Amino acid sequence: MSYTSFNPPVRTLMGPGPSDVHPRVLTAMARPTIGHLDPAFIAMMEEIKGLLQYAFQTGNALTIPISAPASAGMEACFVNLVEPGEKVVVCINGVFGARMKENIERAGGVPIVVEDAMGTPVSPDKLEDALKTHRDARIVAFVHAETSTGVQSDAKTLAGIARHHDCLTIVDTVTSLGGSPLKVDEWGLDAVYSGSQKCLSCTPGLAPLTMNDRAVDKIKQRKTRVQSWFLDLNLVMGYWGSGKRAYHHTAPINTLYGLHEALAMLQEEGLEHSWARHRHQHLALRSGIEAMGLSFLVRESARLPQLNAIVVPEGVDEAVLRNRLLNDYNLEIGAGLGALAGRIIRIGLMGYGANMKNVMYCLEALEAVLADMRAPIRTGVAMNAAQNVAVPN
Asked: For strand 87-92 and strand 110-115, is the pairing parallel, antiparallel, or unpaired?
């Protein structure tokens, strides 16, 4: 068989990620490749570290992108901070909290589970009770923005409870970084990881990560060797640290060009403006969805603006709905995961894709397909409702 160049279809990406990549990022990634120890590239690495410190709102010296997807950022935190036999309190209120538990087990740790229903935030009271019961625990892990449900937990409060009990925190911010308030230093978060493919409008393949001195000290005081060679931060920092760089791996050079451009754009827009833009587009989408007669899984006060979990109307096959949106409108939305499979759809409003054009296009397509599927919805009102949402000052 003879193969030629691959030309992907042009889609509008409004699922849980990846999000639409900004044209400036794609252009940046097409620039000439240089060596990963080239002085010009090393200078750009330093700029990326500073830009990530801004995005995370931190002064942490260890603030870098891991050369792998967000899942590797998660694994980097656990394999570096968790030692065999160590108790870790892990808060599970969705699929990605459950993945944290598996990482703890694979690192040889003992998970102490604090569980909340999917679609509800992590309970501070349950965390407090768990830490009072397990006073020898030294790490608390939780998801700030649970991508599987679109629920946001109170990271500042949870981190405060953990610190009161002398515990470090490992925090998943994959879907929150750049899209909703995240203040690593102010909230006292210790080890935080994210992804490049969501609210940063970059391509998948990099995992922004930051750790404070408390977390770094724990890594340096390990009694056992980090089980992963590639993700051992003692080694990685030889490459990403300041001063003379030691070869560790060949960095994904052009992908890092893209991340640099994405972070520069975030700085140009301003974090607060980005947070407000995501919030406004969510409110517009919400007005249209509710005018149509559909409902959200998560209560408004705990809802993540950039990831909207919407209950599938009775009698509608959500797989058929998603396939028709993809095939007829080139519009990608997400399915429910785990226990919510078949029960919800997930609509992302992330980064470059968080704009009114996408909101209106999504509502138009969703209404047309649902009406054709004889779903019990109100027609002809969604787009006007979204359009009437006032732009914040």
From this structure: parallel
Smallest CA-to-CA distance from 321 within 289, 361, 284, 368 is with 368
Rounded CA-CA distance 296/332 in Å is 19
CA distance 163 to 143: 17
With the C-alpha atoms ordered 195, 201, 206, 209, is the resulting torsion angle positive or negative? negative
Q: Is 346 annotated as a binding residue?
A: yes
- pTM (two decimals): 0.96
Q: Which of 346, 354, 18 is nearest to 150 (CA)?
A: 346
Question: Which domains are assigned to the chain?
Answer: 23-268 (3.40.640.10), 270-387 (3.90.1150.10)
Alpha-carbon torsion, ordered 139, 145, 146, 150, to 10 deg = 160
Phi then psi for residue 53, to 5 deg, are -60, -40
Tokens of 91: 């808060």
The whole-angstrom separation of Cα 114 and Cα 100 is: 12
Question: Where does the chain have alpha helices with state H?
Answer: 23-29, 39-56, 70-81, 95-106, 124-133, 155-164, 184-187, 213-220, 233-240, 253-269, 271-292, 318-329, 356-372, 382-387
Q: What is the Cα–Cα distance from 212 to 204, expressed in whole angstroms?
A: 25
pLDDT of 124-165, one tens digit each?
A: 999 999 999 999 999 999 999 999 999 999 999 999 999 999
If you count them, how many residues does the chain have?
Answer: 393
Rounded to 5°, the CA angle 185-186-188 comes to 60
Beta-carbon-side half-sphere exposure of residue 294 (alpha carbons within 13 Å): 29
